[in-house]
Backbone:
């Protein structure tokens, strides 16, 4: 978590950090508080400050890790849900360890613990090999190209939900993509627990896909 905190502070002015502390609360979820599922040679390795999600070379293989959220509702909604009518920021560091043509991966905050495109309220990013794309869903899904990543380099991902206005996607502190309209989440998911979901899939190939990521840090307005 130290690496995450340093990177976030490095890309954010001190007065902005102070403003967030005054207006809301920060939460983080340890990499040890997860459920996992694998097929083939898929695997997850849990370290102190990051997780490693891998497919291995068996055709096909995938790996998934997910954890339910808690503590963002501030009394307005169920404590296991996001209130999408309040501002939210999501931070994590992402690294792709391999240049593999058929591998896809996703890091998402959404109303299900399963892999796959957003189909309900949520935000996230996806990787197709090294092509990073944005993703959000309000009443419909939107996705746009962010950048092509380089293997073995870590990137700070920030997703800002500006309630009622837009969803912004930042890469290393620089705004890349903005979603509006039907792709802006509003309200809350109701009886469904919201979850962080990380997944990687070699899509029926022998590619050895591997992503590393830090546990997420999330801020939500009170």
Residues:
């Amino acid at each position: 978590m130290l690496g995450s905190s340093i990177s976030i502070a490095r890309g954010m002015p001190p007065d902005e950090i102070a403003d967030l502390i005054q207006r809301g609360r920060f939460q983080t979820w340890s990499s040890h508080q997860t459920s996992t599922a694998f097929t083939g040679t898929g695997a997850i390795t849990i370290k102190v400050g990051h997780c490693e999600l891998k497919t291995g070379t068996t055709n096909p293989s995938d790996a998934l890790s997910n954890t339910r959220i808690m503590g963002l509702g501030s009394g307005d909604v169920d404590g296991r849900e996001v209130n999408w009518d309040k501002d939210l920021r999501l931070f994590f560091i992402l690294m792709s360890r391999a240049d593999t043509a058929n591998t896809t991966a996703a890091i998402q905050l959404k109303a299900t613990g399963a892999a796959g495109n957003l189909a309900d309220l949520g935000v996230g990013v996806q990787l197709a090999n090294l092509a990073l794309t944005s993703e959000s869903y309000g009443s419909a899904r939107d996705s746009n190209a962010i950048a092509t990543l380089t293997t073995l380099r870590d990137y700070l991902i920030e997703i800002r939900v500006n309630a009622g206005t837009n969803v912004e996607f930042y890469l290393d502190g620089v705004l890349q993509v903005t979603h509006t309209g039907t792709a802006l989440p509003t309200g809350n998911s109701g009886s469904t627990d919201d979850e962080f979901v990380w997944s990687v899939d070699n899509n029926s190939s022998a590619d050895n896909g591997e992503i590393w990521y830090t546990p997420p840090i999330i801020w939500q307005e009170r």
